[in-house]
Amino acid sequence: MLEVTEGAVLVTRRDAVAWITLNRPDALNAINIEIQARLPAAIREADADPAIRVLVIQGAGPRSFCAGADIKEFTAVDEPLARRQSRMRDHWIDALDQCQKPLIAAIHGFCLGGGLEIALACDIRVAAGDAQFAFPETGLGIIPAAGGTQRVVRMLGWAQALDLILTGRRFGAEEAKVLGLVTRVVAPDALQPAAEELALALAGKPPLALQFAKEAIRKGGELDYAAGRRLETDLLTHLLNTSDRLEAAQAFREKRPPRFSGR
Ligand code: CAA
Asked: How many domains in the chain?
């Protein structure tokens, strides 16, 4: 994985963790065309690198994870149908859905619209106490369409999805935790250390087990119960003879920490 030290998406590596930073602090890290191109590329590259076990997405600057789509780039569209078709084929958010490794969102400040959609596409969301969330889209004459409507209804059910998206109301980190949109809230200056501690804990686990657990939950959640159980069983079967499963059991018997190889 190439480290990227300039531009709208930065990529750095610490240990087995790729830190992907939305880097337009003067625009509160709004998602412009450059971010739409570079974010998927950064995620795919980190996902393909065997030295990386976990990805963390964060926002640069003190004020914002991401304030959503770059509204200054909003213009009239000549051919809505052609635009819709091209968008349906390959959307920048797909890279997050397709990532096989654990994705952590470390959220501070504004997390709005497309920024909230990025966070929701991650596997685990850690929020700073100062984080503020909203779906402002309907106020702008649009709807959340980077998976927002679909993810929120699946995570929270119809009632909350309709309330949050129709009103576009702003809510804080504690409410986001009560709702179940984030699972961890920490003090603002503890955000980076908390995300790093979580990332390193996941990086120390057998990667195939994490990958398959993601698949069982994300894909299985879209299936009926019986089909989901079959998928779960299939995935477990693939894990039964992995070195890491055998190493975990051996280490337990020998009363020592396991050494996972990723195979
Ligand atoms: N797009 C472009 N620029 C943005 C932006 C955005 N979404 N959000 C903030 N900025 C820019 C501002 O224009 C400003 O830059 P300039 O000084 O050059 O004008 C800078 O960031 C700082 O912002 P403010 O001066 O507005 O800061 P504030 O503290 O007064 O307000 C805010 C902060 C409440 C987040 C306000 O900026 C705001 O409402 N931003 C828009 C949020 C929004 O509606 N996002 C959803 C977009 S739609 C979407 O996301 C859907 C999708 O993915 C397709």
From this structure: 2
Q: Are residues 236 and 194 in the same domain?
A: no
Q: 186: which strand partners?
A: 128
- Which residue pairs, CB below 8 angstroms and at least 24 apart, start in 223-227? none
The residue range of the domain holding 111 is: 9-203
Q: For the full predicted model, state whether its pTM sits above 0.90.
A: yes
Same domain, 178 and 242: no
Give pLDDT tens digits for 191-241: 999 999 999 999 999 999 999 999 999 999 999 999 999 999 999 999 999
Report the residue among 23, 26, 28 best suited for mutation to probe ligand 1: largest number of ligand atoms under 8 A from its CB: 28
- CA angle in degrees (0–180, nearest 5) for 211-214-215: 90
> What is the Å distance from ligand 1's center to 156 Cα?
26
If asked whether residues 142 and 24 sit together in one domain, one would say yes
Residue whose Cα lies nearest atom 22 of ligand 1: it is 27
Give phi and psi for 109, each to the nearest 5: 60, -140
* Same domain? 139 vs 63: yes
Lowest mean pLDDT among 14-23, 35-44, 67-76, 175-184: 67-76
pLDDT score for 140: 97
- Token pair, residue 95, equals 């890279």
Burial environment of residue 67 by CB neighbours within 10 A (0 to 12, 13 to 18, 19 or more): buried
Pocket test for ligand 1, best of 29, 39, 71 (most atoms within 8 A of CB): 71
Catalytic residues: 117, 137
Which amino acid residue places its CA nearest to atom 2 of ligand 1?
Answer: 70
Cα 180 to middle of ligand 1, angstroms? 25
Is 263 part of any domain?
no
136 with 74, same domain: the answer is yes
Q: Are residues 234 and 199 in the same domain?
A: no
